[in-house]
Amino acid sequence: xxxxxxxxTVVTGLNKLVVGKIIDHVDFDWPKSFPNSDEEIRSYLxxxxxxxxxxxxxxIIMELSSKYSLVAHLKxxxxxxxxxxxxxxxGHPNDSLVSKLPDKSTRVTFTFSDNSKLFFNDQRxxxxxxxxxxxxxxxxxxxxxxxxxxxxxxxxxxxxxKQLQKRPNTNIKAALLDQSVIAGIGNIYADESLWGAxxxxxxxxxxxxxxxxxxxxxxxxxxxxxxxxxGGSTDRNYVDAEGKKGSYLKFANVFRRxxxxxxxxxxxxVKIRVAGRGTHVCPMCQRxxx
DNA sequence: CACTTGACCTGTCCGC
DNA sequence: TGCGGACAGGTCAAGT
Length: 290
What we know:
This protein is α+β, with helices and mostly antiparallel strands. The protein folds into two domains: about 5-145, MutM-like, N-terminal (N-terminal domain of MutM-like DNA repair proteins, Alpha-Beta Barrel); about 155-280, Helicase, Ruva Protein, domain 3. About 25% of the residues lie in helices and about 20% in strands. It has seven helices and ten strands. It has helices at about 5-15, 40-45, 140-145, 155-165, 170-175, 185-195, 210-230, and strands spanning about 25-30, 50-55, 60-65, 70-75, 80-85, 105-110, 115-120, 130-135, 270-275, 275-280. A four-stranded antiparallel beta sheet has the order 1-6-7-5, covered by helices on one side. It is globular. The protein binds a DNA duplex through helix 6.
């Protein structure tokens, strides 16, 4: 599922819904989803308050009053959905993929002291939650290696070119999906930003001109901002912390639009395979550059 | 080393 | 309908 805009939307929702809640207990049936020991849970989770929720790349970090944090990755199908007194039973039936919880994809359930609940659902079981000291979050290997946040002021045209030099001989799509080059982009926003910049996903990174990477930089920022504004993309599973879908895909130009007309030139959009991923491209206005 | 290809899982869709 | 295979928004580990 979720790329930067979806995770950002979930984090915004969690800040509104669960900050200030005290964790009473936690239930889980798939240990890989939440592998901490009973001892750690008893000592650092139960009885602690959620004080803040933030995002780095696609990782969600919930800081607790115990000086520990719940760190989570939604991978392809993970969801955090809150249910409490104000929204029992999903207040938006036509806009939601989940009405009754827990359901068979529920892996972890946090119950708060006021009896409201936060469900971690994950159909494919790739996602995970870890409880660890807040001071160690920055030292997680994956987080240490992450490239710049595309919506931060550090992400300049020059910085983007510098980061791309880490992967000079691969294609630009693989480079965009590499979280150590740039943090938070996944399959949808890679395709959309490459279409916006008129760059073919199979173009070799070192062949791109400065004008092209500058344009791509601008497209990445615009596409991500627009998606956050639309509450992210719901392709199949994604919902926000209230269980609602995102509407960005209505505005997408190529993603999942194979066999439709390119909105820019009218040619037929094709779906190919690049970097092992389904990739949507307009063969007319996105040219391969070797 | 740099880069590409499976594996991790469940569910759905499509062709025979 | 049934069944096999491909595919799905991400990241690792193991290959070349």
